[in-house]
Design a protein that fits this description.
The complex is a heterodimer. Chain A contains 19 helices and nine strands. Helix content of chain A is about 55%, strand content about 10%. Chain A is of the alpha+beta class. Chain A folds into four domains: about 120 residues, Butyryl-Coa Dehydrogenase, subunit A, domain 1; about 110 residues, Butyryl-CoA Dehydrogenase, subunit A, domain 2 (Beta Barrel), CATH 2.40.110; about 130 residues, Butyryl-CoA Dehydrogenase, subunit A, domain 3 (Up-down Bundle), CATH 1.20.140; about 160 residues, no CATH class. In chain A, the strands form three sheets. Chain A has a four-stranded antiparallel sheet, covered by helices on one side. Chain A has a three-stranded mixed sheet with strand order 1-4-5. Chain A has a two-stranded antiparallel ribbon with strand order 8-9. Chain B is α/β, with parallel strands linked by helices. Chain B has six helices and 13 strands. A nine-stranded mixed sheet of chain B has the order 11-10-9-12-8-1-6-7-13, with helices on both faces. In chain B, α2 packs across α5 and α3 crosses α4. Chain B is globular, with a radius of gyration of 22 Å. The chains are: A alpha+beta, B alpha/beta. Chains A and B meet through α1 of A and α2 and α5 of B.
Amino acid sequence: MPSMDAISRNLMLDSLRDYARKNIPYDFIREKDQANEFPDKVLKDMYDHSILGVHLLMVPEEYGGVSGGTYDIYRICEALAHIDLGIATAVFATFLGTDPLNVGGTEDQKKKWLQRIAKENLMVAYAATEPDAGSDLVNLRTRAEHVLKNGQLAGYRITGNKQWISNGGVADLYTVLALAPGGPCWFLVERNMEGFAPGKHEDKHGIRLSNTAALSLDNVYVPKENLIGEVEGQGLLQAQAVFGYTRVMVAAFGLGAGWEAVEQAVRYSQQRIQAGGPLSDKQGYTHKLIVPHAVKLEAARAYIEETSNRLDGGEHGLQTEGAIAKYSATEAGNKAADDAIQAFGGYGYTRDFPVEKIKRDIKITCIYEGTSEVLEMTIYRGRWQEHLKSRGRYYIDLADRMDALHDRNPEVGARAAGLALRALAAVMEECRVQKLTRHQAITFRLGRLISMCELAYVFAGASAKERYSESVRFDTQAWQAMSRIFARDAALQMATEGLAMVLGSVDTAGNIAAAVDMDGVQAVQKGMMADMDLVAVKLKQTFKAK
Amino acid sequence: MHIAVCVKQVPDTTEVKINPETGTLIRAGVPSIINPYDHFALQTAIELKKAHGFRVTVISMGPPQAKSVVQMGLALGADDGVLLSDMAFAGSDTWATSYAIAKAVKKLGKVDIILAGMQAIDGDTAQTGPGVAQQLGIPQVTFCVKIDVDGRKIIARKLIDGGYEVVETRAPALFTMIMPPDYTSKYPAFLDVHASLRKPYHVWSASDIGAENHYLGLKGSPTQVARIYPPPQREKAAMTNGSSQEAVEKILDIMRKEHFIE
């Protein structure tokens, strides 16, 4: 679905933030977090048509929803993550659970179920994971056996166990992945069906406001109309088809929660006086604990927005892009939250300040919807194919575009981004020639370096635009400085790590040292300190002490 | 009855910064909101609509992005929306603005009640609402916390020093609104925002409302803003400690020293 108009989207965001301001104070969240309780009243309100109705974003207009696009959903997910990642996850689980219907449902199924989800405010859960099938769904054990009536297929009996299901204990409707005789399929299972039993609410490290439970299905009968798409064997394809987009949502969680931690640290640092001045004025503090994270989060934002806009523009799949968005944003958010605790010192280590909870919560974003390591592999695989298909031109072409951008606008770090991309192309080619991708460690590390270089590319392009996106809270000067910092760092890391990776795995290296252009990479580092200083000041101006 | 509600889009003043060199507001990155007093006026109009079945038109003046506050009004339950948007309006002071709004109200046809916020939180003039009433030659009641309607009679509860005054008037009349202590602002649900896109919405230019250009914009404004500047930062206060008796003695010493008292 294309995204809605900016005014409508921002009115919805205002309504969500206002609801949170009035109804979800930190004390409430803290209490629920400690008690390990699902805030059912909050979720009821969020689904209530007359209060918010956030679940309607996933439902097309013709079925009673508001037809949100990827960009809209990214913005709402980011805002939810600023509030609480457990609550965000409870909403997200409904989005995710609705997805197989949106992607694979027949017209009649969509009409029936999407309308019910919209009108009856059904909370949905997405049940794929099993005790022995996490990232690798090939080990799926849950079975769906045919039930015949007068020799005709009437329905299925589903038996198996599901694990780590968000909303598992509280949902009204479950989309359950099970292996039918014709292959994996999604089934719609209602809570009250005989033989269906949710397990206890798990005692988790974080997102404790999100209900997570195991599910037990013992000969649960579902009519054949509840098989999504009414054709067996489409389940994994239906799941794959939305990865680009579901991963953008989790990317938005990393972005929102990560920024919440950074914002709180920036505000605190202006009040905390140590050694004669506020911490916010001390480089040893800002340039280590604050600025690098702000920069990485904004680079991830630029990438999330580009991927969202492409999906809304009608491009399909974008699995590698979705993986890069999620991997970069959640890793950046997780590290930002960790350093936010450090930035608060002893106070950050107590539950009186929300950064401690954010740190526990945000860790899950590096695990669910594809762990960071699975994503490193996915990213490597996707782009390795491009490298081979283009005979090594893939990243050289992007680097050429960066050089052209630098000629038009020397302020956005495009030269450094170009150097990073050229070094990446050289390292990938050396890996091909020397057959280094036989080392799994190298492929995963390539996944990380690829993400970083692509972010530098997209960030430079985005910060060169005349009109920024509505989500950017900094002026041109600040956003371009962030892009320069990110690109310089990407070039340096790409060159040094790429080189070390190759040299550490071969007997005789080719001319890789020359190919990564270390002299060029060193030359573009000029101005780094001044840019870090500038960003530190801009952060202080944007997030004033309260 | 037909109610027109006047709303304004303002920068969220808790976030506003002033550039000390140019003396202008730094608007970049500052979120815009509906003026809180207008938000209350809008909610009052919607309540009256619910109770009596009145028709509500929400009206604003501003750049194209000010559509946001009109659409918010529609999402909250107004029937139609009007945005006065034209370069000719740019720079209008309170007089020129009330002139334009009065013209637009006339174009709406029969309007019985006009509601506006007591003032906007950016300019703090509290003049535009009363100005509209003057331009239209109708009665006005300012600082109202509540409006009741009984036939053509309108009863307003007006805030005064130390209490309230109950004022009766007849339609048409204009009321400026201020929030009572128990007020809670309402924001629209997602479905209402979505549905508001299908409600009538008009953008009117100066010629659409039959306004004469020499009464509009900077040149039509009898007042001009000479300068905006942040108040100078206060010097650091001197703190005294000890018992109240000691503290009072110390304060008296300081006051004598600074010749505030003999």
